[in-house]
Amino acid sequence: MATILVVEDDADVAGLIEHRLAASGHDVSVAGDGDAGVEAAYVRRPDVVILDWMMPRRTGIQVCEDLRADTSFRTTKIIMLTARAQAADVERAMGAGANDYLTKPFSPRELLARVEALLN
Question: pLDDT tens for residues 58-97?
């Protein structure tokens, strides 16, 4: 079981992700915007962070960069989960420190498989 933080401003999407990952035995928490996501990351110290790109207060890219700037998050795995699907977006996210990139709409089963792959 891993500790997973979902940072997603769409409550329906966040709920779907939370339900699927929790049903697989993970300890899942949700933050509804980028600022809350950074705060939650410092409190929860998650193994995996799933980030939406386009959020209020701080984008997923900014959250990713902020976490990667702190060496205590060096081993934390980050998955960008976003509607942005251009090659330049993927490059930007990976350059910011994301470990994986998945576009919306997405399969909850595929997201779980990617989380499990990053944890192993």
Answer: 999 999 999 999 999 999 999 999 999 999 999 999 999 9
Contact 50, 4 (CB under 8 A): yes
CATH code for position 76: 3.40.50.2300
- What residues have CB less than 8 Å from 101, skipping those under 6 apart? 79, 80, 82, 90, 93, 94
pTM: predicted TM-score of the whole model, two decimal places:
0.96
Q: Which domain holds residue 22?
A: 3-119
Evaluate whether 41 touches 75 at the Cβ level (below 8 Å): no
Beta bridge partners, 78, equal 49
- The count of structural domains within the chain is 1
Residues 6+ apart with CB under 8 A from 79: 48, 49, 50, 51, 98, 99, 100, 101, 102, 111, 114, 115, 118
